[in-house]
Amino acid sequence: MSGFLTTLRRSPGDALLVLFAVLAFGYLFVPIGYVLAFSFNDGGRSNLIWRGFTLDNWANPCGAPGVCEALVNSIQIGLVATLLATVMGTLLAYALVRHRFKARGAINVLIFLPMATPEVVLGASLLAQFLNVGASLGFWTIVAAHTMFTISFVVVTVKARVATLDPRLEEAASDLYASGVETFWRVTLPLLAPGIAAAALLSFSLSFDDFIITNFNSGNTDTFPKFVYVAAARGIPAQAYVIGSAMFVLSLLVVLAGRLLQVRRSRTIV
Amino acid sequence: MAALVDAPPAPVPPAAPVGLNRRRRATGWVLTVPGLVWLALFFALPIALLLATSLMVPVPGGDIGQFQPAFRIANYTEALAEYWPTFLRSFGYGLVATVVALLIGYPLAYVVAVKARRWPTLQALLLVLIIAPFFTSFILRTIAWRQILADEGVVVQTLQALALLPGDGRLTATSFAVVAGLTYNFVPFMTLPIYASLERLDLRYVEAGQDLYAGPWTTFRTVTWPLSLPGVVAGTLLTFIPASGDYVNAALLGTSRTQMIGNVIESRFFRIVDYPTAAALSFILMATILVIVYVYVRRAGTDDLL
Fold it and tell me: How is chain B split into domains, by residue range?
């Protein structure tokens, strides 16, 4: 780290670049700082102006009506959609890399298109369909929508991992009389695990944070982003900031720990 | 596109010629069925239905929100005639947000990927910081911006005190606020793929450029930039597509004069219950974006991204 600073002193161009990066990071973190700070605000219902420090909001995160129901919905929807999308996307990715189809080009287009389609269009078209078949909007329509738009991201992420897989490992397994299913469970799947885990994490965060598609297909069911958006008209209760802050701190710690562990491991191996 | 965020695939020895018997091919199909059915049911079918809806006409004498199948192309021409300025504004905002996000994201990615390369722990930390904004809800962050830039907020008051902003000037409810919000939301999407490209950049190429007496600018233009182009293309797509279709930033940070096409589609659907116009607008938006993406990717010479 001190080596980093010495290098900077030697090159003014680099120092300028680093200064820019520091400013850019500052820009990224301004609203997060705001959310963290106002989670401690004794601001009453609307939480618009700073009225003094309090721990009450953190002591009672479900204090605002509806906020925890919305959070629980978001988590449940995220988990179900992630499970569905990860399983289907992984199978799809594996088949696309390992098997040859005539329709491969068409399948790739079908997977790419949802990622290139604006969310309003995805949301609006699904709503039109649900209205047409008379489906009642709620938990399961949201799950269907989230699974749909996260599958593509799973396929792309897992495909990259399948491409790095040495096919000879699977051939060795079948040479040793493992059946196709056995080979998949005991050789292929463990080797793909990091890619699948990354894809699942990505799906969950995409689902958890989605607002636009959800807003079209949720009916009266609230998710956390929808709760915040609707509440914004009247002023957001401090509890929403508490939940946002807690989520931020928790994920930051988990990801930091994972990353640093990875760096350390790769160092000891090299 | 997201594949670019991951580590580069290590070279794999070519697969031994596999006897593709019929059973194996059948297994391949079975694996794809659940995912493909899901995408067909909840993506392809709705889009086809949207196309049908966009050509419908109101049921004569029917209630509001009742439409019957038809083939009314005029839905499209009327929608365009009324909303072309909104389309222009959406793509304009999307473009400006993309360019500014590139101007912020590229140097940021460069510092993390190249300058911090010799300190893996620092690099890992900085990478987490780039992703960190995703850890709070983007709606919450956008609302935080609205609060920060609000008329009675610190920023406006300070700017007014310094006479950088007229006494009745405001930052929210302006085009500036909407574009700033869009830019903010998508900087990480821009930075990550560029980081992934630059992280793989072999610095010996840069040294070679310098050895051949190229100045820093020439080296950047002829060596670093072309090698990072796949990341730049992926980042600009990941920013431009959602930014031009967004309506949250315009709804939270703008006014009716800064409406984007997403806002119109949303209100046509929910408030005015005019499904055909909403569907026609959605289709025009989707088609325009696909054409832009296609032309852009072709021109950048990065076809393999698709």
Answer: 76-305
Q: What pLDDT does residue B2 have?
A: 41
| Report field, pTM of the whole predicted structure over 0.90 | no
ipTM: 0.88
pLDDT category, A1, cuts 50, 70, 90?
A: low
Question: Are B243 and A120 spatial neighbours (Cβ–Cβ below 8 Å)?
Answer: no
Q: Are B264 and B274 contacting, i.e. CB atoms less than 8 angstroms apart?
A: no
Shortest CB distance from B32 goes to which of A95, A163, A208?
A95
What count of Cα atoms within 13 Å lies in the side-chain half-sphere of residue B86?
A: 23
CATH number of A67-236: 1.10.3720.10
Residue B217 distance to chain A (closest CA, Å)? 12
The pLDDT assigned to A268 comes to: 59
Domain B76-305 matching CATH 1.10.3720.10: the answer reads yes
pLDDT tens for residues B57-73? 888 887 777 888 888 98
* Domain boundaries of chain A, sorted by first residue: 1-62+238-270, 67-236
CB contact under 8 A, B27 and A20: no
Mean pLDDT of chain B: 85
